[in-house]
Amino acid sequence: MRVIIQRVKSSQVIVDGEIIGKIGTGLNLLVGIAETDTEAKLEWMARKCLDLRLFPESAENSRWQKSILEIRGELLVISQFTLYGDCRRGRRPSFDKAASPKIAENLYDCFVNKLHASGLRVETGKFGAMMQVDLENDGPVTLMLEREAE
Asked: Which residues are catalytic?
């Protein structure tokens, strides 16, 4: 499983010209599901996304001391199978390690449900749709989390 975490001041996802998910201060999560992912990996990743200290203590103290839970921020979760694009060979990415759409959608929904259990506001994109993501990156802070087969 791979997740690109972006700390944002705002973010929204648009499908067919309509805003289907929108948040203020929080985290934009681009989520890639691998064929080897399990519910245990999803649990680890959800906990990591919720617990990482990515937000400053205060306006005066810019050191990252607070998690999304502590600031009661918002989450926008967007499926992104292209995170498993392998560009090492040829001129076209291979997506062999990405989970099939049916498996990926079930695991993606499970991941979103684990985030919902935190009590935070969670918005999503539309699985499998062509989406436009607009965001105001804060920092910018962009990190990649990965949890591969063990």
From this structure: 82
Query: DSSP character for 93?
Result: -
pLDDT average, residue stretch 23-36: 97
Under DSSP, is residue 105 helix (H, G, I), strand (E, B) or coil?
helix
Alpha carbons 137 and 17: distance in angstroms, whole number: 22
**Global pTM value:** 0.94
How many Å apart are CA 11 and CA 26, to the nearest integer? 9
Average pLDDT over residues 30-42: 94
pLDDT of 150 strictly over 60? no
Phi-psi region of 44 (alpha: psi -120 to 50; beta: other; left: phi over 0): alpha
Distance CA 25, CA 71 (A): 9
**Rounded CA gap, 22 and 36, in Å?**
30
Question: Among residues 136, 108, 119, 129, which one has the least CA distance to residue 37?
Answer: 108
